[in-house]
Specification:
about 290 residues, alpha+beta, Alpha-Beta Plaits, 2 domains, 5-stranded mixed β-sheet, two-stranded antiparallel sheet, about 65% helix
Length: about 290
């Protein structure tokens, strides 16, 4: 007896989803599983019917039809299982791709973080002195601008000091630039150690430093700070087997009496410093030399 025509198995749409579409692959996987379970139930029903026909000695056509149905269901089960294997393979590929993308994203994030660190370092390098690590003149001017804005708002006085090291050339000439650089670093550390949080000490160039005193209450306080800076600079520097000593000439200009702009204050502090160097008179205010 010829077997009846087998019903066509309904294929899953697009059984090989894109690896990146994990959600779609999971849906196909579940669909295939549901089909396998349905076939299993159908196969169990057919087998139960076949067993009953055999036990009861049913007619041959009925038994043959039951066998045919059982065979068809088995074929459907096998095809569904193959479909499930294919979908699971696609799902596994999608998972591998996702992990690859995750790793790539992690690498990208690491590269981005490194780029940001490099950018921050480049900015810090651009605003700080390479030898001493102090703010450079560019950053000093920015902070001076901000300080004058705050001083105008709060009716403060602010002081700018120009510091030049005396006898530093002798250190370089006698011991070489390595010792000279070590001396500058030592002086920078000392100046930074006595700088208040709101104040700024910078290395302008060579053996020149500048100091910004944000809130300068009166001339006596300003002079005391300048004397303190001069004293810590003049203390001997122990640099390995070498001991060197330098001193400082300091010129001072005060906002608002000596100027209202950064340029005015810097120029007058510079002039006062050179007057202090000529007279060897210690820290000197602009107004003191301006009056003479």
């Amino acid at each position: 007896m010829p077997h009846p025509q087998k019903p066509a198995l309904k294929r899953l749409p697009n059984s090989s989803p894109e690896p990146t579409s994990l959600l779609k692959a999971r849906g196909h996987t579940q669909h295939a599983k549901d089909m396998v379970e349905a076939c299993a139930v159908e196969l169990s029903t057919v087998n139960t019917s076949l067993k009953k026909e055999l036990e009861e000695g049913g007619p041959a056509p009925a038994i043959e039809q039951a066998l045919s149905q059982s065979e068809e269901v088995e074929i459907k089960v096998e095809e569904c299982a193959d479909e499930l294997i294919s979908v699971n393979a696609a799902l596994a590929e999608g998972i591998r791709e996702r992990r690859g993308l995750h790793d790539e994203l992690a690498q990208t994030n690491d590269a981005l973080a490194a780029s940001r660190r490099q950018a921050r370092k480049a900015r810090a390098d651009a605003l700080h002195d390479a030898l001493t690590g102090l703010p450079n003149f560019t950053l000093f001017k920015d902070r001076l601008e901000l300080a004058l804005t705050q001083a105008r708002r709060h009716d403060w006085r602010s002081a700018v000091m120009f510091i030049d090291l005396d006898k530093f050339k002798e250190v370089n000439d006698t011991y070489g630039h390595d010792v000279g650089d070590a001396c500058l670093k030592e002086i920078a550390e000392r100046l930074e150690s006595v700088t208040r949080g709101d104040d700024t000490i910078c290395r302008r160039a060579g053996d020149e430093f500048q100091f910004l005193m944000l809130e300068a209450k009166d001339d006596a306080v300003i002079s005391a700070v300048a004397e303190k800076l001069a004293a810590i600079i003049s203390a001997p520097c122990e640099l390995g087997k070498v001991q060197v000593s330098v001193s400082a000439s300091i010129g001072i200009a005060v906002f608002p009496e000596d100027g209202h702009s950064p340029q005015e204050l810097l120029e007058k502090a510079d002039a006062a410093m050179y007057a202090s160097k000529r007279k060897a008179s210690g820290p000197l205010f602009w107004r003191q030399i301006d009056a003479k």
